[in-house]
Amino acid sequence: MKKKTLVLVLALAMVFTFALSSCGGGGSAEKDEEQVLRVVTEATFAPFEFTEDGDDEIKGFDVDMMNAIAEDQGLKIEFINMEFDSLIPALESDQGDIIAAGMNKLAGDRAEKADFGDTYFESDLMLLVKSDSTLTSIDDVTPDMKLASQIGTTGGEYVQTLEKDGKIAQGVVLNQWTDSYMQLQNGDVQGVVVDKPVGEAYLNSHSDIAKFVGEPFGDHEEFAYAVQKGNTELLEKLNTGLAHMKENGTYDELVDKWFS
Question: What domains does the chain contain, in order, with CATH numbers?
Answer without folding.
Answer: 36-120+224-259 (3.40.190.10), 124-219 (3.40.190.10)
